[in-house]
Amino acid sequence: MEKLIITAAICGAEVTKEHNKNVPYTAEEIAREAKSARDAGAAVIHLHVREDDGTPTQSAKRFAECIEAIRAVCPDVIIQPSTGGAVGMSNEERLQPITLTPEMATLDCGTCNFGGDDIFVNTENTIIEFAEKMKAKNIKPEIEVFDKGMVDAAIRLNKKGVIPSPMHFNFVMGVNGGISGTPRDLMFLVNSIPSDSTYTVSGVGRVQLTMNVMSVLMGGHVRVGFEDNVYMSKGVPASSNGEFVERIVSIARLLGREIATPDEARVILGLKK
Questions:
Q1: Domain presence at residue 1
Q2: Which 3 state secondary structure label does DSSP give 9?
Q3: Does the global pTM surpass 0.90?
Q4: For the chain (length 273 residues), average pLDDT per consecutive 10?
Q5: Peptide bond connecting 166 to the previous residue in cis, omega within 30 degrees of 0
Q6: Considering the domain boundaries, does residue 120 fall inside one?
Q7: Could you tell me the CATH number of the domain that includes residue 172?
Q8: Per the structure, how many domains does the chain have?
Q9: By residue range, what is the domain housing residue 167?
Q10: CA angle at residue 207 from 153 to 182, to 5 degrees?
């Protein structure tokens, strides 16, 4: 099997210090959490940013500030900004971080009901717009999948040349309104993608560890971190993103998977540093 790429989703757009006091908001806190994850073995930092009061923002200036802070303590790590932003943001707002020309960025491939009146809207035209702007800047998209139809959408756009090959998917499992986080569902998704693709698995909430371990066993990659779960176990808050990374590193090594460095992850993902 390939070496395991570990992505740390260090803060997300929705979780707050009320959920876990260690969720980072400031650039200094974000750099601290990125370093804790990188030191423990993460090769990729999946990045949302906040204002100092915790308000989600897609400001290019704020992304640049946080990326600079991360680079100061993790010079080799892959930084993957989110273009998902937060529910209700415009396409123009969401696309701001790609003006910084990161190596990777997220590409959401469908609309999802997040609960209540919250709808995460990604029309086909939105997906095409984001994909074409990433391609023009040679940014590798990570295709965010909340349900099987989003795999199909990505494959259709790949056949039209909108999304380049080979594709890299992130299966986000266990989100309200999306696919469940079960072994059956993960196998269904993995068997639905092109054979030259790579994939990462993000289990949300209580399914995080189960889905991560399944992906390790199946030859996929994993995402951990506060965006997906703020607890190490029921009622026990995580002290840092690094604690999540340390746990999956330990499990992966017990199962015979070596851990990819950032440069090894670049080779696996087809990135150019």
A1: no
A2: strand
A3: yes
A4: 97 95 98 98 98 96 98 98 91 97 97 87 96 98 97 98 98 95 98 98 97 98 98 96 98 98 98 76
A5: yes
A6: yes
A7: 3.20.20.70
A8: 1
A9: 6-269
A10: 60
